[in-house]
Automatic annotation (TrEMBL):
An example molecular function term from Gene Ontology annotations: alpha-L-arabinofuranosidase activity
Signal peptide bounds: 1-20
Coiled-coil region list: none
Sites marked Important for catalytic activity, responsible for pKa modulation of the active site Glu and correct orientation of both the proton donor and substrate: D149
Species assigned in the record: Micromonospora profundi
GO BP terms, alphabetized: L-arabinose metabolic process; xylan catabolic process
Keyword Hydrolase in annotation: yes
Whole-protein residues included: 12 to 314 of 458
Keywords (A to Z) from UniProt: Carbohydrate metabolism, Glycosidase, Hydrolase, Polysaccharide degradation, Signal, Xylan degradation
Name this polypeptide is given: AbfB domain-containing protein
Organism placement in taxonomy: Bacteria, Bacillati, Actinomycetota, Actinomycetes, Micromonosporales
Family: Belongs to the glycosyl hydrolase 43 family.
Amino acid sequence: SLIVSSAVVATALVAMPAQAANPIVTRFAGDPSMLVANNRVYIYATDDQGNSGTYWDSNAWRVYSSSNLVDWTDHGAPFSVSGFSWATQYAWAPSAVQRNGYYYLYLPVDRTKIGVARSTSPTGGFSDPRGSSLVERGRDANTGEEPIDPAAFVDDNGQAYLYFGGARAPKVVRLNADMISTSGGVQNLTITGTGSSTAFGEAGFVHKRNGVYYFSYSTGWPGQIAYATASNPLGPFTYRGILLDYTNNNTNHHSIAEYNGRWYIAYHRNGLPGSNDFRRSLAMDYLNYNSDGTIARVTQTSV
Ligand code: FUB
């Protein structure tokens, strides 16, 4: 949860709740992808409320937003698997970015394909601008067994990338400026370092701070969120440590964003009655950097 100190409240002279609770919303959801736009934080998520409770078999995604990170609005489903004529099931971990006057959602389906949906609104009106997947196992070379868990990233120079991968195979492909096509083919992402924590499991995410590229990822099942840094978005990345420890859920999946001068991590855990590995809840906490650019271990709050 995001604890607002009384000193900050007093200085700001505004009425703010002292504390927001984790989970941040009361509907089951997982795999939060944060997007900052319109002076709000949008969170796109896998809609675990819509699954069977025995697998991640929901067919729709969910979007929430907040301006104060305390009061969250549920905007419903921005898109569902049926919006892709070429897909049948499993609406898994989304990734959202804004560019060119559009909002883009990168969406894994069928455990084997990643598609893109586009809208001029962050909360609805998304449609498939391609009519085909962006990345697909069996069609494209070097996708790995499980091309899931996309993470789109637009660099300062305009070059965009789509990171993805599960089943211990981190991948990256260049996105063209239109954000709906790729070039150059799928590359492997290299993480160098020693120890079992360097092992990539799934759920990669990229952000950039002070010219450093941070690749963070789940180490497995159960997973910690480890991170590695590089001076080039294509790597190689050097392992730096763990930024988020095991949660009380077997999967670990996060995103990182800066909002109003502070950095935040969104992730999922079991925080609602009836939770299990497939029925997760959304959490958000501060992310703190040390002066040398390393990241302090996140304090997981549950209230
Ligand atoms: O939500 C389905 C899967 O669970 C995601 O793709 C993984 O990252 C894990 O969170």
